[in-house]
């Protein structure tokens, strides 16, 4: 995994946006795998700026998001569909018909997961997948487990993830959905390129385990060591426990 050290969140966000913009300039009809959470917000702000000030066009871009809470509608302000509209899609020239997120209200879980996988295949696969990392090393909503998950599936969230994400739900853990749809590890690993972003001291342990640790489903992000084109952009705090950096 290639590691790029950023001075701070601002630099990390600019570097991540530049990598995504370069992908779009080189291939205007790219399929982007997108992430939610607080980590990518700065990158999305920079992409909006590049759209407004540097003619970066998303007109032909297609997107597939990593995950969605089960039980939340796309109009719920805590859904990832709502997050993507608020933080990116409403501010760029993307055709919303080309943006895809699992349907949080789907009752046929297996059917929804299968059709999401089929959709990704029908788009020709993901050109660039953006990832954040959870404090327990999860990617998407692939929680620590004893096997690496394969394709898009429905998961039971760990208490530590519910706790970490409660900040988006008035700090009330009881309001956080306990289940989610997520691309699987195999789905993520099939992306041609992967860009992971991490900032802050509370990610330092997860980043160290992802980069320096053994490859194990106990740390789902550690599988990224096996991807041939995975880049981590992280700030100094997130890299503070990682060894072997030049
Ligand atoms: C959630 C999301 C992940 C995200 C993680 C970290 O669990 N499902 O995709 O990477 O949170 O979020 P944050 O960037 O807010 O720390």
Cofactors, ions and other ligands in the entry? 2-amino-2-deoxy-6-O-phosphono-alpha-D-glucopyranose
Number of helices: 7
Largest sheet, spatial ordering of strands: 1-10-9-6-2-3-5
Proportion of residues in β-strands: 15-25%
Profile the largest sheet: 7 strands, parallel
Radius of gyration: 17 Å
| Portion in helices | 25-40%
> What is the average per-residue confidence, as pLDDT, rounded to a whole number?
96
How many β-strands, per DSSP? 10
Which blocks of ≥5 consecutive residues have pLDDT under 50? none
Q: Give me the strand/helix succession.
A: EHEHEEHEHEEHEHEHE
Structural class: alpha/beta
Distance between the termini: 14 Å
Overall shape: it is globular
Report on this structure.
This protein is an alpha/beta fold. 30% of the residues lie in helices and 17% in strands. The chain is built from 7 helices and 10 strands. A 7-stranded parallel β-sheet has the order 1-10-9-6-2-3-5, covered by helices on one side. The protein starts with a strand and ends in an 11-residue tail after the last strand.
């Amino acid at each position: 995994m290639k590691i790029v050290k950023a001075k701070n969140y601002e630099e990390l966000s600019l570097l991540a946006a530049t990598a995504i913009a370069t992908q779009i300039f080189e291939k205007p009809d790219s399929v982007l795998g997108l992430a939610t959470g607080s980590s990518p917000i700065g990158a999305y702000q920079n992409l909006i700026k590049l759209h407004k000030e540097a003619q970066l066009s998303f007109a032909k871009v297609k997107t597939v998001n990593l995950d969605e809470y089960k039980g939340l509608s796309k109009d719920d302000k805590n859904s990832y569909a709502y997050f993507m509209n608020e933080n990116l899609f409403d501010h760029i020239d993307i055709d919303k018909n080309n943006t895809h997120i699992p349907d949080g209200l789907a009752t046929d879980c297996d059917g929804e997961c299968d059709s999401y996988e089929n959709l990704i295949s029908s788009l020709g696969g993901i050109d660039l997948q953006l990832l954040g990392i959870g404090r327990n090393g999860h990617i998407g909503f692939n929680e620590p487990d004893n096997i690496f998950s394969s394709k898009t599936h429905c998961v039971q969230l760990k208490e530590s993830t519910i706790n970490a994400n409660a900040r988006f739900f008035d700090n009330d853990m009881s309001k956080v959905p306990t289940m989610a749809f997520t691309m699987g590890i195999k789905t993520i690993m099939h992306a041609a390129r992967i860009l992971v972003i991490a900032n802050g001291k509370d990610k330092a342990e997860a980043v160290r385990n992802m980069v320096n640790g053994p490859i194990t489903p106990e740390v789902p992000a550690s599988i990224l060591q096996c991807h041939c084109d995975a880049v981590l952009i992280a700030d100094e705090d997130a890299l503070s426990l990682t060894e072997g950096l030049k």
